[in-house]
Automatic annotation (TrEMBL):
Main location: membrane
Keywords carried by this UniProt record: Membrane, Transmembrane, Transmembrane helix
Organism expressing this protein natively: Prunella himalayana
Region annotation Disordered: where it falls in the sequence: 1-29
Name of the protein this chain belongs to: PIRT protein
PANTHER family: PHOSPHOINOSITIDE-INTERACTING PROTEIN, PHOSPHOINOSITIDE-INTERACTING PROTEIN FAMILY MEMBER
């Protein structure tokens, strides 16, 4: 069985040890986290919750409609017909992809909100029974 390496004398710390002690890893992880913190329970408006998927849906719908217009131009115009035939379906597919991604994102957010509410309820129940 191997013994762990001995640390320098009691008062001294290695450079790595001093760096770890003075590091604020925990606080920087919480502040730089992209997800909502568990400890903040401030109510958020519907716009704060759903603004990103709504923007993706609206941009996707706009690009999709632009693709429809460009594709239909290839039927009516004879000049630059190849350009319209190539770019129209590209805009159609890009717009449809963004539209579907945004529409799928909304139920995912709803499910996360329900889980978060359930988790907060269970935490309050646990704290009620165990903090007596």
């Amino acid at each position: 069985m191997e013994l762990p390496p001995r640390s320098p004398s009691g008062g001294e710390q290695s450079p790595q040890g001093r760096e770890l002690v003075t590091s604020e890893t925990g606080s920087t992880l919480c502040t730089s986290s992209r997800s909502e913190s568990v400890w903040t329970s401030a109510p958020r408006s519907k716009w704060d919750i759903y603004h990103k998927p709504l923007i993706v849906v609206s941009v996707g719908a706009a690009i999709f409609l632009f693709g429809v217009v460009i594709t239909s131009l290839s039927c009516f115009l004879t000049k630059n017909k190849k350009v319209y035939k190539m770019s129209g379906p590209a805009f159609l597919s890009l717009g449809l992809m963004l539209l579907v991604c945004g529409l799928v994102w909304i139920p995912i957010i709803r499910k996360k909100q329900k889980q978060r509410q359930k988790s907060q309820f269970l935490q309050s129940l646990k704290s009620f029974f165990f903090n007596r």
